[in-house]
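Appendix B. One record, verbatim.
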Amino acid sequence: MTKRLYIIVCLLMMFVEMNGQTSNQLIREGNRLFSSKKYAQSEILYRKAVDKDVNNAIANYNLGRSLQEQKKNAEAKKFYEAAAKLERDPIRQSSSYNNLGTIFQNEKDYTKAIEAYKNALRHNPNHNNARYNLELCKQKQKQQSSNDKKNKSNKDKDKKKQSQNKNQKNNQKKNNQQKDKQDMSKENAEQLLNAVKQQEKETQERLSKAMRQPSDRKLDKNW
């Protein structure tokens, strides 16, 4: 209980102290925590610094860094973009664009990554990491495009094959139906022929029987 109370008091003191600090003071304190890899705590201080001065480019940039270290990339991109717009120093602007490029690169969004690295080099042509990553992303983009074309080609082939198989099945079904009809027609014809033969046989038997019987005809009487 005492330990818990102590933590609450410390947090309250920290909150009061932060409210009394300037934006730059909060940034320096955040940098100290960031250097110790206490990224979540540094994030709190950088957010306070941005709240104090929303146009502070360094506060926005550092907040982006702490968020990226925590893999909160969607939010980190927003602060890097804000820092790049607010910053007047070309070297620091270059860093914002470079870090933005690394996020897009990790997301395999090579088009946006390439644009970010180009912006980094526009502001600082000597940024070697941006130059290297730019070339790497160009290669990855070509490879990605090639793979997409192959996948599309394979899908088209699969669709064509499925269509051919479907047509073959339909043709086979039609052939079977036609064959069944032909078989039925042949069977019906044989049945009809047998019936005719049977009728003819029965007729011949009746005629033969009638011819064997004696004549019983009588003359009509006179009137």
